[in-house]
Amino acid sequence: MSRDPLVVGNVVGDIVDYFPASALLRVSYGGREMTCGSELRPSQVATEPAVSITGGGHDGRALFTLVMVDPDSPSPSNPSKREYLHWLVTDIPEGAGANHGNEVVAYESPRPTAGIHRFVFIVFRQVVRQAIYAPGWRANFNTRDFAACYSLGAPVAGAYFNCQREGGCGGRRYR
Fold first, then answer.
1. Candidate CATH numbers 3.40.50.300, 1.20.1050.40, 3.90.280.10, 1.10.260.40; the one for domain 5-164
2. CA 139 → CA 21, 37, 47, distances in Å?
3. Phi-psi bin for 37: left (phi > 0), alpha (psi -120 to 50), beta?
4. Which of 57, 84, 152, 153 could cross-link with 73 by S-S, CB 3.0 to 4.6 Å?
5. PANTHER family this protein is in (predicted)?
């Protein structure tokens, strides 16, 4: 059985195909680094996180695209809006934060109303700097189709956290 948290959390399969991580993604909310699979409350993720990506393998000059989606929208039992796009940033320089990239779709804070949602960060290494356009809507975004459309190839890093409404209780169960 795989110990990869992206496999255990069904991120691989639901959003992306399996990929070997070749970059390091760090996500921090309020100065606290997020660990893959951690439980965070909406109040903890209300503002845009600090994100840094290292390990580009191009003498520190790599550029990255970051996608943040909710594959469990509007509820894990009926994810009819899968994947809901929460954030899209391109042209992030290696070692610099997402705030140094091009924010194509502004950060929308997670506010789940039913069940425990996964909020997933997927990183792609860009081959070239290119124009990437905001989709017309956030609901039913498809990370695989997006990557194919812009020839981004396989992801190079990923992470996710679980989140439920402020008063919710309980943990996520995996198959």
1. 3.90.280.10
2. 27, 23, 20
3. left
4. 84
5. OS12G0232300 PROTEIN (PTHR11362:SF20), PHOSPHATIDYLETHANOLAMINE-BINDING PROTEIN (PTHR11362)
